[in-house]
Amino acid sequence: MTDLAATALATNHYYDRNFDRDAVKILPGEYYVTDTDVVLVTVLGSCVSACIRDPALGVGGLNHFMLPDTGADQSAPASSSARYGTNAMELLINQLIKQGARRSHLEVKVFGGGNVLSGLTVTDVGARNATFVLEYLRREGFRVAAQDLVGTFPRKIYFFPAT
């Protein structure tokens, strides 16, 4: 596979001088899957990202979702569907499998879900996102290799799908 085989909703590509390689910035509601030696980058507050890869194949991807589900807004357009956890997880996993990853080989790490705005405790979206992603992965039979969820701090994620 080549970089042209990379599948993206994310289109913000740049060269990261710190890591001396191409990078892709993943914004809320986006995901990216690739088999190339790039770094996938995102910044999380209450949002959650799943970093998933098939270490045997060297293909991996990252999503960035804002809410666990669509709630009452069942009319959300398809272009915004990756903003919601269920859709974001399905899009990422399905694209990995489409690129040859084996479901049984997938390694999963999840991050985010912080309550970074003090005073927003009534609808703690971060905690809801974190609970959702862990429950989704459990229900789908995935083991979580690593997690850094909830708390009061934002996170900047650098994911190297090849390694």
Would you write up a description of this structure?
With 163 residues, the protein is of the alpha+beta class. The chain has two helices and ten strands. It has helices at residues 85-98, 125-139, and strands spanning 7-8, 12-16, 21-25, 31-34, 39-44, 48-54, 59-63, 107-112, 144-149, 155-159. Strands 1-4-7-6-8-9 form a six-stranded mixed β-sheet, covered by helices on one side. It has a four-stranded mixed β-sheet with strand order 2-3-5-10, with no helix packed on it. The longest helix has 15 residues, at 125-139. The protein is globular and about 40 Å long. It starts with 6 loop residues before the first strand and ends with a strand.
Short description:
The protein has 163 residues and is of the alpha+beta class. The chain has 2 helices and 10 strands, in the order E-E-E-E-E-E-E-H-E-H-E-E.
